[in-house]
Amino acid sequence: MSKITKVTAVSTILASSVLLSGCGLFGGGEQNKIDPPKEVSYDHDGSAMEDSKTSKQEETSKDTEQQKVKTELYLIDKNGFVVPQTIELPNSEGVAKQALEHLVDNGPVSNILPNGFRAVLPADTEVNVNIAKGVATADFSSEFESYKKEDELKILQAITWTLTQFDSVKTVKLQINGHELKEMPVNGTPIEQGMSRAQGINLDTSGVADITNTKPLTVYYVGGEPGSYYYVPVTKRVSETKEDNIAAVVEELIEGPSYTYNLVSGFVPDVKLLDAPKLADGKVTLNFNKSLLGSFKEKKVSKSTLDALVLSLTEQKGIESVELQVNGSAKLLNDEGKPLSEPVMRPEKVNTGSF
User: Fold this and answer.
1) Coil, strand or helix: which one is 42?
2) Which CA distances in Å does 80 have to 116, 156, 205, 232?
3) Are 82 and 202 in contact (CB under 8 A)?
């Protein structure tokens, strides 16, 4: 199957997915729950009294729900990509440490690991995390050194991106038994002073002979399979001469992932920007040709197209939301046929459910 045919086919399938708004965006969504019938007893004068046991059970259930916090765990999928999967973990004070503990093979993540994914840190690795002045220092036990060399860069990326999801963390340092690492212990990958998302994830340097005059841009493509699609961040190298990062991101989304990557883009190849992107007060406005609408006849924008744009563009500093236009008109609909009347913001967490 050609790349164009593959992209178009997947885009058509993804277009039928439900586009959710607000903090439910990019997730599988939650159906409204119907409260079970309550057990009721009656006192001597016939007044109804709610069963105290049932009431206590409901209160306990609510407390349990409130004690959960959605956390992005960067795991490795079956194709070897480092992918965020949002999982509910106990709401503890040491949430950053807990997140890294859930990256350990055969650790607490084992019972909640999504199908096709594996943890990135060697089994039995113990971890501690100290956060001060925007720097998270992750200190590992000696078991950390027992990983396979082909996983080394993925481990660095998974640790860095898992920790930098938290607002209090800007950069990451690594230690083993209290000793700072300057390079990774198995294959010697250098560890820059203060790892951050700027170093990228799932690096794609295909077609780049010399990265000297290039810069990194992270965009989101679609991975997975029918019934369990998810978004995969990929850092590509683009020429330094491309001064407009917003336009460059859109260009990379339209171009799609490398042929060697088992990923697709929700964009058809003939999508084009009609005007230069406009950025004001954290909102970027993009005016596309009608090809953005794909096969939709009612000015609908597919879920995969909208999600990819919002996730990719909000990786750029200063961008908080995205407003779309087609031929200058903002009167567009999402997959459900609801108006895209407000700029779309990035969700708090990515991949909260497959689609």
Assistant:
1) strand
2) 10, 14, 16, 11
3) yes
284-298: pLDDT as tens digits: 999 999 999 976 678
Asked if 149 contacts 187 with a C-beta cutoff of 8 angstroms, the reply is yes
339 and 209 in one domain? Answer: yes
From CA 202, how far away is CA 208, in angstroms rounded?
15
| Residue 165 and residue 273 share a domain | no
Whole-number Å distance between alpha carbons of 109 and 101: 8
* Beta pairing partners, 97: none
Distances (CA, A) of 337 to 32, 198, 271: 20, 37, 21
Which domain does 265 fall in, by range?
202-345
Sole residue written with tokens 């046991």: 53
Using an 8 Å Cβ cutoff, are 267 and 307 in contact?
Answer: no
The answer as to whether 250 is a domain residue is: yes
| Residues 186 and 218 placed together within one structural domain of the fold | no
Strands (E) in 195-251, as ranges, are 214-225, 228-239
pLDDT one-digit tens code per residue, 105-150:
999 999 999 999 999 999 999 999 999 999 999 999 999 999 999 9
Q: Residue 264: what are its φ and ψ, rounded to 5°? A: -135, 165
Q: How far apart are CA 236 and CA 339, in angstroms?
A: 33
**CB–CB of 283/320 below 8 Å?**
yes
Structure-block tokens of residue 276? 């230069």
Under the banding of pLDDT at 50, 70 and 90, the label for residue 20 is: very low
| Total length of the chain | 355
Encode burial over 153-177: b for 16+ CB neighbours within 10 A, e otherwise. Answer: bbbbbbbbbbbbbbeebbbbbbebe
Pair 106, 132 in one domain: yes
> Do residue 163 and residue 251 come from a single domain?
no
Q: How many domains does the chain have?
A: 2
CA distances from 285 to 125, 246, 309, 323, 345 (A): 46, 10, 11, 5, 12
CA distance 320 to 315: 9
